[in-house]
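hey so u asked for the seq, here:
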Amino acid sequence: MEEQIDPYKEVIDRVTDLSMLRLFETYLEGCPQLVLQLYALTEHGQASFSQYAAIIVSCCAVSWSTVDYQIALRKSLPDKQLLSWFCPKFTYFFYKLFTLSSWILSGVLLLLLNFKIALFLLLFLWFLGIMWAFKNQTHFCASISMEFLYRIVVGFILVFTFFNIKGQNTKCPMSCYYIVRVLETVGILIVFWVCPPPAFKSDYFITTSITVALTLFLGIVFLIVYYGIFHPIKSEDKKPDEIDGKPVQRDCRMRYFLME
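ran it, structure tokens below
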């Protein structure tokens, strides 16, 4: 006999799929737009209040899309506790917001320094993200062609933020990811200090450098606080949770894609 389909579970799964698509759309549209906006702002050195507000709202929208997906995803996984408290949600949000803002600002500084080098770095990181997705052999889509497209999109998002693409323990990969992120950011700042563009104001760069360093530091702090204190653990009848450890296979429709 065929298993009965739970209508409530089916609705939750579809909402999770829609949340994931919104996440992809937000990153694919929002991140390049943020880079262009900040590049234009830093190049001219002057901007109105509305431009600053638009950039802040865009950063918040991109960051909140990861929180929204995390909330929806945990509702669809039977072995995960819900992300329902106020503090975990906003700790996770600020972790994404600060790390994303720091990296986008760093990329903009590199664009001001040398467009070709910045483009090469972003394409190289995108390539590494795609290779990481292929290495993990994700099985999220029904067809091979759509799975390849999914991995390409995953690689693009990995340029800007980290997430677990196969539901495995990500403590080591995530640590390596943000160690490399810190080294990249510090390297960009050092190069910019040593070889600044002639038309760039030194006072403006000091403010930008402090913003990049401070947002990255705060992002790492919120990351540690979230996973050290607020990260929801599995249900009591399951094994102790590692950082988004491998989920139970039965009834886990999305067992190969877990956002970090």
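Residues 235-260 have pLDDT under 50 and may be disordered. The CA atoms of residues 81 and 232 lie 6 Å apart.
lmk if thats what u needed
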